[in-house]
Predict the structure.
Amino acid sequence: MERNVIENQRLRESYTEVQHPSGLRILVLPKRQFNKTYAVFATRYGSVDNRFSVDGGPFMSVPDGIAHFLEHKLFESEDGNAFDRYAKTGASANAFTSFDMTAYLFSCTENFKESLDILLDFVQNPYFTKESVEKEQGIIGQEIRMYDDDANWRVYFNLLRAVYHRHPARIDIAGTVESIADITHELLYSCYNTFYNLSNMVLCVCGDTDMDEVLEVADKRLKAAKPVEISRDYGPEPSDVARKRIEQRLSVNMPLFNIGIKDTRLGLAGMDFARKRAAVSILLELLAGESSPFYRRLYNEGLINSNFGVEYTGSQSFGLSVLGGESKDPDKVFEAFAAELEQMRSEGISLRRFEECRKKLYGRAVSGFNSVENVGHDMVSGFFAGMGPFDMFEAYANVQAEELTDYLNREFTPDRLALSVVLPL
Amino acid sequence: MTEYRRIEIDKGVGLTIIGTDKFKTNYLSVSFICPLSEEQASKNALLPMVLKRGSKSFPDMESVSARLDSLYGASLFATVRKKGELQVSGLGLEFIGNDCALGGEDVFAGAMELLFDLMFNPRVSGEGFEATYTEQEKVNLRDLIAARINDKRAYAVNRCVEEMCRGEAYAVDEYGKAEQVQAITPQSLYEQYQALLSGGHIEISFVGKGGEALEARVRELTGQLTRSPSELPATQVRGTAESPREYVEELPVSQGKLTLGFRSGITAADPDYPAAVLFNAVYGGTPVSKLFMNVREKLSLCYYCSSRLEKLKGLMLISSGIEVENREKAQQEILAQLEAVKKGDFSDEELENARRSMVNAFNSSADSIGALEDWHLNQMLAGSPKTLEDAAKEMAWVKREDVVRVAEKMRLDMTYFLKGTK
């Protein structure tokens, strides 16, 4: 088995990558000075994957929320629950489902190999029954209702509904109470067998360990399976937003808002993806970050407060920039931002500010390496975009102002803007 | 390897260097340490918030912000903490190490100069701080104090402490009260600042690589000050309580919050402190503790029920969120579980789970810059300068009978109940 070792001199870090005989890609980034170790075992299967075909067969659609449902159920086995097993080894475990992946993880300061053994075991051994599915429908129904009341969650998901005509990113990750009623244990097995194939998954580890230790457990536990070929259908998606404005009323003190800018430069991977993310993130910082004239002006006018932030989010099949915060008058914030875009288009990007913003985001990316959880998490989400753990550093270091100007002129256009607002009752 | 070193630069001026090259960033903080008092608390809390608004070289938010960006996104924040009967307030700055700088810039030197300029060279207007900065930050501080009431879980703990320690300095909240904030003027705040510079203790803390470079600069800066610092008062610790008291408060919320305040009389310097740590883990400090397994899991009386130690004043605080009608039962069960520990009614497995949990917690803390800095400050103030590694190792020596002996020392002083009336 060939080991690929990649070093980054400036960061003084290195990681090892292998293609395990079982078909699983394994990445290990040792941080021997740390006491904690973090491991995450993930599949490229998330809430957007609601229509797919396997090995050239017919396309099938599945109920909204099934990937998240599956995540909950995988912890159960015939003789108990994975959490009980972790209690004996002292690991702290969790899992999450996002738009494009489902991840199972733990962190620990001792008994790493024992805990890794548990992780690889329970994720590869599904156990779904009619009774356990029915029980979970009630529990997840409660979880969905909790998110329905969460203003921050709703302002973001409403934005996605406004931005996307058809792309499944507009679906709630946990689905709805109605959609999960259609989930059966047979459907769970069907999705499991399709997506939880080692050729569609990855294991990322960061902390006080190394590839030899990880392989000791992997060699014992990983079960090779014939790789499957998966085709995913996200539907055709126009480049403009579906609706320019969407509004909902909830019990909040002050209106919340999310401004979205739809990204159509999709299907990028590896360094191309990293460069895009770096360029857009720096551009957002320039336009509306804490040091920007826009931020200071609106802050002093009382239109935004220190809860305002900007971020680029997305995966390979969709992406958007989000500016979010609280305001007495979100529509005014939106107008001011649209005007700011026009102004920067006509004046051009200040090179001095570009360099300052580059440095800030590069520095923040460097600080991320202080935490094994952060590194592990970035490794796994980066992997599914074809990126290695050091790609974002290189991208921030090398991106040029022209790349931002290109985005400003061709992607941050009026037809790509949408506003989502949550108003008080 | 993490190395801890503290240098007494001068009377009342300390420099703590926690040397490690584990992290990609370094952390530098400058704090004033002074007695916790009702009259001064709000002024001391407001001070760093105003100081970070501008200095002589960086006179406004725009220039401070631009400087932080060019220092690779350095993070600047005000810190206000209660440590026993002392108030610790100042500024902290986290910044990347020089070896990560793209152009070979000396980020360390830039960060050090920025922080020292903000702390020691503030922007002054006439006889006081900038009026707009003072007024804007007064609003922010009042909002912060108001928000503390919104977090009912924390509120119930603070109120228990306030009632239990009424008449003692410890009863004072580190942010003071909204009315006191209102009364502050740019001049009165500046006077307080000068009083701290000349009479308070100054602690400079550093976590990361290259801390040795600080000593010379700190000596130079503090050497220019005319100082006559007073001794910091020792925190009053007692291990006894007269008969247990009760305090009930009503608010229009739906849930009840129960807080039990105990005097342990055991501080971080006490040879029995490691035993107290293990006792706390067994009793109510983990999701497999007696309180969690019985009050929550077995009897379903509460949403949360946990205990924690306060290591400078020598207290134990139990907090629990319950339905109002379950108050009596929850209180009884909490005390019954304490009696159980006193009788040695816990298995070897429970004891070893607790031990493993605490070793894990100490070792995990060493992976966090913030936790490292706070740990060493606490230990220094308690007069017991040990490392997190030391604390983890000490867990191995605590025996079952030590846990039982510490349980016997816990004296219930105050039962506080926040009764929801909705």
